[in-house]
Amino acid sequence: MKRTFSHLFKPLLLVFACLVTFNAAAFEGHADQLEALNHPLALVALAIFIFAYVLVIFEEQLHLPKSKPMINAAGVLWVLAALVGAEMGMTHDDIEQAVTHNLAEYASLFLFLLVAMIYINALEERNIFEALKGYLVSRGFSYQKLFWVTSVIAFFLSPIADNLTTALIMGAVVMAVGKDSPQFIGLTCIAIVVAANAGGAFSPFGDITTLMVWQSGHATFFEFFELFLPSVANYLIPALIMSRFIPEGQPPALEDKVIVKPGGYRVCVLFLVTIVLAVTFENLLGLPPYLGMMTGLSLLFLMVYFARRRAPADSPDKEYNVFSKLAIPEWDTLLFFFGVMYCVGALGFLGYLTAISGVMYGEWGATNANIAAGAISSVIDNIPVMFAILTMEPEMSHFQWLLITFTAGVGGSLLSVGSAAGVALMGAARGHYTFMSHLKWTWAVALGYAGGIAVHFAVNA
Protein backbone atom coordinates (compact mmCIF):
# COMPACT_ATOMS: atom_id res chain seq x y z
CA MET A 1 0.00 0.00 0.00
CA LYS A 2 1.48 3.33 -1.06
CA ARG A 3 1.49 6.16 1.42
CA THR A 4 -0.46 9.28 0.53
CA PHE A 5 1.21 12.66 0.04
CA SER A 6 -0.43 14.21 3.08
CA HIS A 7 0.44 11.25 5.30
CA LEU A 8 4.09 11.31 4.31
CA PHE A 9 4.88 14.99 4.28
CA LYS A 10 2.50 16.60 6.74
CA PRO A 11 5.13 16.63 9.54
CA LEU A 12 7.73 18.11 7.20
CA LEU A 13 5.34 20.75 5.91
CA LEU A 14 4.28 21.69 9.44
CA VAL A 15 7.91 22.16 10.45
CA PHE A 16 8.52 24.23 7.30
CA ALA A 17 5.47 26.41 7.99
CA CYS A 18 6.55 27.01 11.57
CA LEU A 19 10.12 27.85 10.63
CA VAL A 20 9.31 30.44 7.98
CA THR A 21 7.16 32.35 10.46
CA PHE A 22 9.80 32.42 13.21
CA ASN A 23 11.47 35.67 14.16
CA ALA A 24 15.15 34.80 14.08
CA ALA A 25 16.00 37.50 16.61
CA ALA A 26 13.94 35.64 19.18
CA PHE A 27 16.55 32.89 19.38
CA GLU A 28 20.11 33.13 20.57
CA GLY A 29 22.26 31.17 18.13
CA HIS A 30 25.54 29.47 18.93
CA ALA A 31 28.77 31.29 18.20
CA ASP A 32 29.29 29.36 14.94
CA GLN A 33 25.68 29.70 13.80
CA LEU A 34 23.82 32.37 11.88
CA GLU A 35 20.37 33.76 12.52
CA ALA A 36 19.19 33.61 8.93
CA LEU A 37 15.87 31.77 9.13
CA ASN A 38 14.08 34.20 6.82
CA HIS A 39 16.91 34.73 4.35
CA PRO A 40 15.79 33.70 0.82
CA LEU A 41 18.78 31.39 0.33
CA ALA A 42 18.19 29.77 3.72
CA LEU A 43 14.58 29.04 2.75
CA VAL A 44 15.81 27.57 -0.55
CA ALA A 45 18.21 25.35 1.42
CA LEU A 46 15.38 24.09 3.62
CA ALA A 47 13.22 23.37 0.55
CA ILE A 48 16.10 21.45 -1.10
CA PHE A 49 16.55 19.33 2.02
CA ILE A 50 12.84 18.47 2.10
CA PHE A 51 12.91 17.58 -1.60
CA ALA A 52 15.99 15.38 -1.14
CA TYR A 53 14.27 13.59 1.72
CA VAL A 54 11.21 13.01 -0.46
CA LEU A 55 13.52 11.21 -2.91
CA VAL A 56 14.88 9.11 -0.03
CA ILE A 57 11.34 8.09 0.99
CA PHE A 58 10.59 6.92 -2.55
CA GLU A 59 13.92 5.11 -2.91
CA GLU A 60 12.35 1.79 -3.91
CA GLN A 61 9.95 3.29 -6.44
CA LEU A 62 12.63 5.46 -8.08
CA HIS A 63 15.42 2.86 -7.82
CA LEU A 64 17.62 5.75 -6.67
CA PRO A 65 20.01 4.86 -3.80
CA LYS A 66 19.26 7.09 -0.83
CA SER A 67 22.84 8.30 -0.51
CA LYS A 68 22.82 10.12 -3.86
CA PRO A 69 20.17 12.78 -3.20
CA MET A 70 21.41 13.35 0.36
CA ILE A 71 25.07 13.82 -0.62
CA ASN A 72 24.04 16.13 -3.45
CA ALA A 73 21.80 18.11 -1.09
CA ALA A 74 24.63 18.33 1.46
CA GLY A 75 26.91 19.98 -1.10
CA VAL A 76 24.25 22.40 -2.35
CA LEU A 77 23.13 23.30 1.18
CA TRP A 78 26.64 24.20 2.25
CA VAL A 79 27.15 26.32 -0.90
CA LEU A 80 24.02 28.27 0.02
CA ALA A 81 25.09 28.44 3.67
CA ALA A 82 28.51 29.77 2.64
CA LEU A 83 26.89 32.49 0.50
CA VAL A 84 24.65 33.51 3.39
CA GLY A 85 27.58 33.43 5.80
CA ALA A 86 29.76 35.58 3.55
CA GLU A 87 26.91 38.07 3.18
CA MET A 88 26.61 38.28 6.97
CA GLY A 89 30.32 38.94 7.49
CA MET A 90 31.81 35.49 8.11
CA THR A 91 35.34 34.79 6.88
CA HIS A 92 36.38 31.77 4.83
CA ASP A 93 38.05 30.29 7.93
CA ASP A 94 34.82 30.62 9.92
CA ILE A 95 32.82 28.86 7.21
CA GLU A 96 35.42 26.10 6.82
CA GLN A 97 35.40 25.50 10.57
CA ALA A 98 31.59 25.25 10.51
CA VAL A 99 31.69 22.74 7.63
CA THR A 100 34.21 20.47 9.36
CA HIS A 101 32.45 20.70 12.73
CA ASN A 102 30.69 17.34 12.24
CA LEU A 103 33.61 15.56 10.57
CA ALA A 104 34.92 13.93 13.74
CA GLU A 105 31.44 12.68 14.65
CA TYR A 106 30.92 11.21 11.19
CA ALA A 107 34.38 9.65 11.07
CA SER A 108 33.93 7.88 14.42
CA LEU A 109 30.45 6.66 13.44
CA PHE A 110 31.74 5.53 10.03
CA LEU A 111 34.60 3.48 11.48
CA PHE A 112 32.39 1.92 14.15
CA LEU A 113 29.70 0.93 11.64
CA LEU A 114 32.23 -0.28 9.10
CA VAL A 115 33.66 -2.80 11.59
CA ALA A 116 30.19 -3.94 12.67
CA MET A 117 29.10 -4.41 9.05
CA ILE A 118 32.23 -6.39 8.17
CA TYR A 119 31.64 -8.74 11.12
CA ILE A 120 27.94 -9.18 10.28
CA ASN A 121 28.82 -9.96 6.68
CA ALA A 122 31.50 -12.41 7.81
CA LEU A 123 28.97 -14.21 10.03
CA GLU A 124 26.54 -14.31 7.13
CA GLU A 125 29.18 -15.67 4.74
CA ARG A 126 30.12 -18.41 7.23
CA ASN A 127 26.42 -19.48 7.31
CA ILE A 128 25.88 -18.62 11.00
CA PHE A 129 22.52 -16.98 10.35
CA GLU A 130 21.45 -19.63 7.84
CA ALA A 131 22.25 -22.32 10.40
CA LEU A 132 20.05 -20.57 12.97
CA LYS A 133 17.23 -20.36 10.44
CA GLY A 134 17.62 -24.03 9.50
CA TYR A 135 17.52 -25.08 13.14
CA LEU A 136 14.27 -23.23 13.79
CA VAL A 137 12.62 -24.41 10.59
CA SER A 138 13.33 -28.08 11.37
CA ARG A 139 11.93 -28.04 14.94
CA GLY A 140 8.26 -28.55 14.07
CA PHE A 141 6.96 -25.89 16.47
CA SER A 142 3.28 -24.90 16.61
CA TYR A 143 2.21 -21.55 15.21
CA GLN A 144 1.88 -20.12 18.72
CA LYS A 145 5.33 -21.32 19.74
CA LEU A 146 6.88 -20.05 16.51
CA PHE A 147 5.30 -16.64 17.12
CA TRP A 148 7.02 -16.37 20.48
CA VAL A 149 10.30 -18.08 19.54
CA THR A 150 10.95 -15.88 16.50
CA SER A 151 9.99 -12.61 18.18
CA VAL A 152 11.92 -13.37 21.39
CA ILE A 153 15.02 -14.26 19.36
CA ALA A 154 14.55 -11.03 17.39
CA PHE A 155 14.43 -9.09 20.68
CA PHE A 156 17.72 -10.55 21.93
CA LEU A 157 19.52 -10.80 18.58
CA SER A 158 18.91 -7.18 17.61
CA PRO A 159 21.15 -5.72 20.37
CA ILE A 160 24.09 -7.54 18.77
CA ALA A 161 23.17 -7.50 15.10
CA ASP A 162 21.21 -4.65 13.57
CA ASN A 163 17.41 -4.68 13.36
CA LEU A 164 17.50 -5.12 9.57
CA THR A 165 19.58 -8.32 9.68
CA THR A 166 17.51 -9.63 12.58
CA ALA A 167 14.21 -8.99 10.80
CA LEU A 168 15.39 -10.69 7.60
CA ILE A 169 16.60 -13.80 9.44
CA MET A 170 13.43 -14.22 11.49
CA GLY A 171 11.27 -13.26 8.52
CA ALA A 172 12.86 -16.04 6.46
CA VAL A 173 11.95 -18.53 9.20
CA VAL A 174 8.34 -17.30 9.31
CA MET A 175 7.97 -17.45 5.53
CA ALA A 176 9.50 -20.93 5.36
CA VAL A 177 7.28 -22.59 7.96
CA GLY A 178 4.10 -20.49 7.77
CA LYS A 179 3.44 -20.22 4.05
CA ASP A 180 0.08 -21.96 4.49
CA SER A 181 -1.13 -19.42 7.07
CA PRO A 182 -1.15 -15.77 5.90
CA GLN A 183 -2.58 -14.60 9.23
CA PHE A 184 0.33 -16.17 11.10
CA ILE A 185 2.86 -14.53 8.76
CA GLY A 186 1.29 -11.08 9.03
CA LEU A 187 1.00 -11.01 12.82
CA THR A 188 4.39 -12.59 13.42
CA CYS A 189 6.10 -10.12 11.09
CA ILE A 190 4.61 -7.24 13.10
CA ALA A 191 5.86 -8.83 16.33
CA ILE A 192 9.34 -9.30 14.81
CA VAL A 193 9.52 -5.64 13.74
CA VAL A 194 8.45 -4.46 17.20
CA ALA A 195 10.84 -6.89 18.93
CA ALA A 196 13.82 -5.99 16.72
CA ASN A 197 13.34 -2.26 17.28
CA ALA A 198 12.70 -2.69 21.02
CA GLY A 199 15.73 -4.96 21.44
CA GLY A 200 17.97 -2.45 19.72
CA ALA A 201 16.86 0.38 22.00
CA PHE A 202 18.65 -0.87 25.12
CA SER A 203 22.01 -1.58 23.49
CA PRO A 204 24.59 0.84 22.07
CA PHE A 205 25.04 -1.65 19.21
CA GLY A 206 21.37 -2.27 18.54
CA ASP A 207 20.52 0.83 16.54
CA ILE A 208 22.28 3.71 14.83
CA THR A 209 20.52 6.17 17.15
CA THR A 210 21.76 4.44 20.32
CA LEU A 211 25.25 4.36 18.84
CA MET A 212 25.05 8.09 18.14
CA VAL A 213 23.96 8.83 21.72
CA TRP A 214 26.74 6.62 23.10
CA GLN A 215 29.44 8.22 20.98
CA SER A 216 28.17 11.70 21.85
CA GLY A 217 28.82 10.96 25.53
CA HIS A 218 25.24 11.41 26.78
CA ALA A 219 25.13 7.85 28.15
CA THR A 220 27.79 5.28 28.98
CA PHE A 221 27.70 1.73 27.66
CA PHE A 222 26.08 0.20 30.73
CA GLU A 223 23.59 3.03 31.24
CA PHE A 224 21.73 1.93 28.12
CA PHE A 225 20.67 -1.21 29.94
CA GLU A 226 18.43 0.96 32.11
CA LEU A 227 16.14 0.84 29.06
CA PHE A 228 15.83 -2.95 29.18
CA LEU A 229 12.55 -3.05 31.13
CA PRO A 230 10.92 -0.28 29.02
CA SER A 231 11.98 -2.20 25.91
CA VAL A 232 10.48 -5.42 27.29
CA ALA A 233 7.20 -3.60 27.92
CA ASN A 234 7.26 -2.07 24.45
CA TYR A 235 7.58 -5.55 22.91
CA LEU A 236 5.43 -7.63 25.27
CA ILE A 237 2.28 -5.49 25.31
CA PRO A 238 1.51 -5.72 21.57
CA ALA A 239 2.89 -9.28 21.40
CA LEU A 240 0.51 -10.49 24.12
CA ILE A 241 -2.41 -8.83 22.35
CA MET A 242 -1.56 -10.24 18.91
CA SER A 243 -0.73 -13.72 20.21
CA ARG A 244 -4.43 -14.25 20.97
CA PHE A 245 -5.15 -14.06 17.25
CA ILE A 246 -2.45 -16.49 16.10
CA PRO A 247 -4.14 -19.51 14.46
CA GLU A 248 -3.98 -22.89 16.15
CA GLY A 249 -2.24 -25.84 14.61
CA GLN A 250 1.25 -26.82 13.62
CA PRO A 251 2.97 -26.36 10.28
CA PRO A 252 4.72 -29.38 8.78
CA ALA A 253 8.33 -29.80 9.93
CA LEU A 254 10.90 -29.10 7.25
CA GLU A 255 14.33 -30.59 6.76
CA ASP A 256 16.53 -27.58 6.21
CA LYS A 257 19.84 -28.28 7.88
CA VAL A 258 22.67 -25.89 7.12
CA ILE A 259 26.33 -26.56 7.85
CA VAL A 260 28.38 -23.72 9.35
CA LYS A 261 31.51 -23.10 7.29
CA PRO A 262 34.92 -23.58 8.95
CA GLY A 263 35.82 -20.69 11.21
CA GLY A 264 32.22 -19.53 11.61
CA TYR A 265 32.12 -19.98 15.35
CA ARG A 266 35.53 -18.35 15.70
CA VAL A 267 34.11 -15.27 13.97
CA CYS A 268 31.30 -15.24 16.57
CA VAL A 269 33.86 -15.29 19.38
CA LEU A 270 35.95 -12.56 17.76
CA PHE A 271 32.87 -10.38 17.32
CA LEU A 272 32.12 -10.67 21.05
CA VAL A 273 35.78 -9.93 21.83
CA THR A 274 35.57 -6.84 19.60
CA ILE A 275 32.51 -5.59 21.48
CA VAL A 276 34.34 -6.13 24.78
CA LEU A 277 37.32 -4.19 23.43
CA ALA A 278 35.09 -1.26 22.43
CA VAL A 279 33.55 -1.14 25.91
CA THR A 280 36.93 -1.56 27.65
CA PHE A 281 38.59 1.16 25.59
CA GLU A 282 35.87 3.63 26.56
CA ASN A 283 35.22 2.73 30.21
CA LEU A 284 38.69 1.83 31.44
CA LEU A 285 41.04 3.76 29.17
CA GLY A 286 38.97 6.78 28.10
CA LEU A 287 39.60 5.96 24.44
CA PRO A 288 36.88 6.26 21.77
CA PRO A 289 34.90 3.03 21.18
CA TYR A 290 35.68 2.96 17.46
CA LEU A 291 39.37 2.42 18.30
CA GLY A 292 38.45 -0.76 20.17
CA MET A 293 36.31 -1.85 17.21
CA MET A 294 39.18 -1.29 14.78
CA THR A 295 41.49 -3.28 17.06
CA GLY A 296 38.95 -6.11 17.04
CA LEU A 297 38.78 -5.91 13.25
CA SER A 298 42.50 -6.51 13.10
CA LEU A 299 41.92 -9.80 14.95
CA LEU A 300 39.47 -10.87 12.23
CA PHE A 301 42.03 -9.95 9.57
CA LEU A 302 44.66 -12.07 11.30
CA MET A 303 42.27 -15.02 11.60
CA VAL A 304 41.44 -14.81 7.89
CA TYR A 305 45.12 -14.50 7.01
CA PHE A 306 46.12 -17.67 8.86
CA ALA A 307 43.03 -19.53 7.59
CA ARG A 308 43.99 -18.72 4.01
CA ARG A 309 47.57 -19.84 4.65
CA ARG A 310 46.34 -23.21 5.97
CA ALA A 311 43.61 -23.76 3.36
CA PRO A 312 44.29 -26.25 0.51
CA ALA A 313 45.14 -24.75 -2.86
CA ASP A 314 41.76 -25.73 -4.36
CA SER A 315 39.69 -24.50 -1.38
CA PRO A 316 37.33 -21.50 -1.80
CA ASP A 317 38.68 -20.20 1.51
CA LYS A 318 42.04 -19.66 -0.19
CA GLU A 319 40.61 -16.55 -1.86
CA TYR A 320 38.26 -15.49 0.95
CA ASN A 321 38.09 -11.72 1.43
CA VAL A 322 36.23 -10.14 4.36
CA PHE A 323 35.43 -7.14 2.15
CA SER A 324 33.84 -9.25 -0.59
CA LYS A 325 30.28 -8.77 0.70
CA LEU A 326 30.66 -5.19 1.90
CA ALA A 327 29.06 -4.04 -1.32
CA ILE A 328 26.51 -1.52 -2.56
CA PRO A 329 23.86 -1.61 0.23
CA GLU A 330 26.38 -1.07 3.02
CA TRP A 331 28.28 1.73 1.31
CA ASP A 332 25.02 3.37 0.36
CA THR A 333 24.04 3.39 4.04
CA LEU A 334 27.40 4.74 5.22
CA LEU A 335 27.34 7.53 2.64
CA PHE A 336 23.71 8.30 3.45
CA PHE A 337 24.80 9.06 7.01
CA PHE A 338 27.35 11.52 5.62
CA GLY A 339 24.66 13.29 3.61
CA VAL A 340 22.26 13.43 6.57
CA MET A 341 24.87 14.75 8.98
CA TYR A 342 26.07 17.47 6.66
CA CYS A 343 22.56 18.50 5.59
CA VAL A 344 21.54 18.80 9.23
CA GLY A 345 24.81 20.61 9.94
CA ALA A 346 24.08 23.18 7.22
CA LEU A 347 20.55 23.79 8.53
CA GLY A 348 21.98 24.14 12.02
CA PHE A 349 24.55 26.64 10.73
CA LEU A 350 21.71 28.72 9.26
CA GLY A 351 19.94 28.71 12.64
CA TYR A 352 17.04 26.34 12.04
CA LEU A 353 17.95 23.80 14.71
CA THR A 354 18.27 26.52 17.35
CA ALA A 355 14.79 27.69 16.40
CA ILE A 356 13.27 24.21 16.54
CA SER A 357 15.02 23.51 19.84
CA GLY A 358 13.61 26.71 21.29
CA VAL A 359 10.07 25.63 20.45
CA MET A 360 10.27 21.92 21.26
CA TYR A 361 12.47 21.96 24.33
CA GLY A 362 11.73 25.50 25.46
CA GLU A 363 7.95 25.65 25.07
CA TRP A 364 6.78 22.02 24.93
CA GLY A 365 9.17 20.71 27.56
CA ALA A 366 11.66 17.87 27.23
CA THR A 367 9.20 15.03 27.92
CA ASN A 368 6.62 16.13 25.35
CA ALA A 369 9.33 16.93 22.82
CA ASN A 370 11.01 13.55 23.20
CA ILE A 371 7.76 11.60 22.96
CA ALA A 372 6.75 13.61 19.88
CA ALA A 373 10.16 13.06 18.27
CA GLY A 374 9.75 9.31 18.73
CA ALA A 375 6.36 9.38 17.03
CA ILE A 376 7.75 11.49 14.19
CA SER A 377 10.44 8.86 13.63
CA SER A 378 7.72 6.47 12.40
CA VAL A 379 7.41 8.71 9.33
CA ILE A 380 10.79 10.44 9.15
CA ASP A 381 13.81 8.19 9.59
CA ASN A 382 15.05 8.18 13.18
CA ILE A 383 18.64 8.92 12.16
CA PRO A 384 18.12 12.54 11.01
CA VAL A 385 15.69 13.04 13.91
CA MET A 386 18.27 11.90 16.46
CA PHE A 387 21.18 13.70 14.82
CA ALA A 388 19.17 16.92 14.72
CA ILE A 389 18.47 16.62 18.46
CA LEU A 390 22.13 15.89 19.20
CA THR A 391 23.08 18.94 17.13
CA MET A 392 20.54 21.11 18.98
CA GLU A 393 22.19 20.09 22.27
CA PRO A 394 19.12 20.84 24.41
CA GLU A 395 19.67 21.03 28.16
CA MET A 396 18.29 17.69 29.36
CA SER A 397 18.83 15.37 32.28
CA HIS A 398 20.28 11.89 31.90
CA PHE A 399 16.74 10.53 32.29
CA GLN A 400 15.53 12.60 29.32
CA TRP A 401 18.45 11.56 27.12
CA LEU A 402 17.52 7.95 27.81
CA LEU A 403 13.90 8.79 27.00
CA ILE A 404 14.72 10.20 23.55
CA THR A 405 17.04 7.24 22.93
CA PHE A 406 14.15 4.90 23.71
CA THR A 407 11.42 6.76 21.80
CA ALA A 408 13.57 7.30 18.70
CA GLY A 409 14.50 3.61 18.74
CA VAL A 410 11.01 2.14 19.11
CA GLY A 411 8.90 4.89 17.53
CA GLY A 412 9.56 3.44 14.09
CA SER A 413 7.48 0.38 15.02
CA LEU A 414 4.27 2.43 14.87
CA LEU A 415 4.25 2.07 11.07
CA SER A 416 5.71 -0.60 8.82
CA VAL A 417 7.67 2.08 6.96
CA GLY A 418 9.09 3.58 10.15
CA SER A 419 12.17 1.36 10.40
CA ALA A 420 14.55 -0.61 8.22
CA ALA A 421 13.19 -3.82 9.78
CA GLY A 422 9.64 -3.06 8.65
CA VAL A 423 10.64 -2.01 5.13
CA ALA A 424 12.77 -5.14 4.71
CA LEU A 425 9.99 -7.46 5.85
CA MET A 426 7.48 -5.83 3.52
CA GLY A 427 9.75 -6.92 0.69
CA ALA A 428 10.52 -10.37 2.09
CA ALA A 429 6.89 -11.18 2.98
CA ARG A 430 5.33 -9.40 0.02
CA GLY A 431 1.56 -9.76 0.01
CA HIS A 432 1.42 -11.09 3.58
CA TYR A 433 2.96 -8.23 5.54
CA THR A 434 1.96 -4.84 4.14
CA PHE A 435 1.58 -1.24 5.23
CA MET A 436 -2.14 -1.73 5.83
CA SER A 437 -1.78 -5.05 7.67
CA HIS A 438 0.60 -3.33 10.09
CA LEU A 439 -1.62 -0.25 10.33
CA LYS A 440 -4.50 -2.40 11.60
CA TRP A 441 -2.41 -3.19 14.66
CA THR A 442 -0.82 0.23 15.15
CA TRP A 443 -3.13 0.77 18.12
CA ALA A 444 -1.58 -2.26 19.86
CA VAL A 445 1.95 -1.09 19.00
CA ALA A 446 1.02 2.38 20.31
CA LEU A 447 -0.06 0.81 23.61
CA GLY A 448 3.40 -0.76 23.80
CA TYR A 449 4.97 2.61 22.99
CA ALA A 450 3.02 4.26 25.80
CA GLY A 451 3.66 1.33 28.13
CA GLY A 452 7.41 1.45 27.55
CA ILE A 453 7.46 5.17 28.32
CA ALA A 454 5.42 4.57 31.50
CA VAL A 455 7.84 1.86 32.64
CA HIS A 456 10.77 4.20 31.98
CA PHE A 457 9.17 6.81 34.22
CA ALA A 458 8.40 4.19 36.86
CA VAL A 459 11.85 2.60 37.11
CA ASN A 460 14.29 5.27 35.91
CA ALA A 461 12.82 8.63 36.98
From TrEMBL:
Keywords per UniProt: Antiport, Ion transport, Membrane, Signal, Sodium, Sodium transport, Transmembrane, Transmembrane helix, Transport
One Pfam assignment: CitMHS
Membrane topology of the entry: Multi-pass membrane protein
The protein, known as: Sodium:proton antiporter NhaD
Signal peptide: 1-26
Primary subcellular site in the record, as a coarse category: membrane
Gene: nhaD
Membrane-crossing residue ranges in chain numbering: 41-58, 70-86, 106-124, 145-178, 184-205, 263-281, 287-307, 334-359, 371-390, 402-429, 441-459
Citrate transporter-like domain ranges (all copies): 53-409
Lineage: Bacteria, Pseudomonadati, Pseudomonadota, Gammaproteobacteria, Alteromonadales
Subcellular location: Membrane
Keyword Transport in record: yes
